[in-house]
Amino acid sequence: MRDAPISSRHHLAGGVDYKWIALSNTTLGVLMASLNSSIMIISLPAIFNGLHINPLVPANTGYLLWLLLGYMIVSAISLVTFGRLSDMFGRVRLYNLGFLIFTGGSVALYLSSLTISGTRGALALILLRLVQGFGGAFLSANSAAILTDAFPAQERGLAMGINQIAAIGGGLIGLVLGGILSAVDWHLIFLVSVPVGLFGTVWAYVALREIATVRRGQRLDPLGNVTFAVGLTVLLIGFTYSIEPYGHSTMGWGNPLVLSLITAGVLLLGVFVWWEQRAPDPMFRLSLFRVRAFAAGNVSTLLAGIARGGLQFMLVIWLQGIWLPMHGVAFVETPLQAAIDMTPLMAGFLVVAPLSGWLSDRAGARVLATAGMLVNVVGFILLAGLRSEFAFWPFAGVIFLLGVGQGMFSAPNTAAVMNSVPPEHRGAASGMSATFLNASMMLSIAVFFTILVVRLAARLPQAMYAGLTRIGLPAKAALQVSHLPPIAALFAALLGYNPMSNLVSPSTLAQLPAATGATMLSNHFFPSLIGPPFMDGMRTVLTVAAGMALVAAFASALRGRAYVHGAQRSRTDSRR
């Protein structure tokens, strides 16, 4: 099936070409969804203080993990199903429904934060964040498909570039905005989405209209939907709990529950693949992966997501737990300052993404996307060369370079993937691509945390024991503190707490001389202990990230020259 003629797709509404209406509304929707996926990272200390819960108590770490990652899990498992439903019932219709669900969840979150506290309040926030995740999945699953419908093939790269700015930039804006709002009033974290959501919902229902032809008579694929959703859910939950300690182990990879969840998830996804090749009306047509541009684009999305998905968490911990305290910033102030210090990453992306999208419309995605991943390889290697105590401007230059590389990759790659599929499958294809991206970020967090904690477990106990006994802590107490799980120290740094105040019991602190206690709780003490072991782990993480980015570049190069489904070949455009 060919794309509809440009004249039939580009209607005028009040003198404004419809494609710009579609671009502005979907960009607002993606911005809101991505902003809310990251705003919690910086805001968690204020939220837990407001709820009167200590998130580092073992019984409460589940609340921490689900508030942090639950939104991402729900989005990941819903995207393909929602994309398929959109192909069946209308992309604009379900996109608008997503705006409505997301806004309703935002209102309920704000009201809940005002009225419920304690563990009941935490559970309420988690459940309502899941509701937000479902709404955000409708937005993310359909935005690329709606843009592909609205824009001609030669302009889709630019449209995707602007849309990707919202997707990536929103995540970084969420960090800064969360830090500012939580410093004023933590309830505002949930309120901020309400006016934007109300405006976007009304605007979407009034201005957007269905351009794609809705195929009637299609049937749902219950077995495909169930095996995919349940399989991916248990797999991602298994990866989530793998970063929690189990028994005497620093990680949860020996936990039978974790192993069972991951095994069950892999098996169910295997059943999904088997069934989808036999289903009369499958949820997702796996035959699309026979299109080289689609397969290579999604594989490179997955690998690129693994390379950079957990990096944001690693950089936040690096800044909050080590670099900022060593430069005199109080732990309670490090979340906001860390977000501000990461703005060069967003700046690099903002500068390059629209330009790379525009260029890909003219030269194809292969060169730009591949070069973007190679730039990321260089950026990861340069970042691995830094010490835990570094000068800010070289650090800013390296993360700016990483933003440039991601900007070169994202828009051309997304446009190329969407151009390669038939119009009637764009919703499902958009959902599948977004699923690869979200799942890769969850996998990246699990892999990177595992590498970092394993390396810390090998070196941190000895470093902490030596440092604690050197300042006068009794050997027995120093031994006990030094063998506490490294993940507790990392979570404390992520939450803006002084890790030593959580690792050393109040009764032990009370028995120490005042000078020893003051030294132990100073800004410099913990960073000086964890800095060298942390950087040992970070270099391993960044080496793995560089390797993933290199393989992503190779996969991107395999996509072939520019290819648009249904278009006639030309001298510059061919499938192979």
How would you portray this structure in words?
It is a single chain. The model is unreliable at 1-15 and 568-576 (pLDDT under 50). Helix 3 (61-89) runs antiparallel to helix 9 and helix 4 (91-115) runs antiparallel to helix 5 (118-150). The protein has a two-stranded antiparallel ribbon. Strand 1 (12-13) and strand 2 form a beta hairpin. The protein contains 23 helices and two strands. The chain has 576 residues and is mostly helical. The protein folds into three domains: 6-220 and 283-456 and 532-557, Growth Hormone, Chain: A (Up-down Bundle); 221-282; 457-531, no CATH class.
Overview in brief:
With 576 residues, the protein is an all-alpha fold.
Give me the secondary-structure topology.
Blueprint: H1 6-9, E1 12-13, E2 16-17, H2 18-51, H3 61-89, H4 91-115, H5 118-150, H6 156-184, H7 188-191, H8 193-207, H9 222-241, H10 256-276, H11 292-309, H12 311-326, H13 334-341, H14 343-363, H15 366-384, H16 392-419, H17 426-470, H18 475-482, H19 486-494, H20 499-503, H21 506-510, H22 514-520, H23 525-557
Antiparallel strand pairs: 1-2
Helix pairs in contact: 2-3, 2-5, 2-6, 2-8, 3-4, 3-5, 3-9, 3-17, 4-5, 4-8, 5-6, 5-17, 6-13, 6-14, 6-16, 9-10, 9-17, 11-16, 11-17, 11-23, 12-13, 12-19, 12-23, 14-16, 15-16, 15-23, 17-18, 17-23
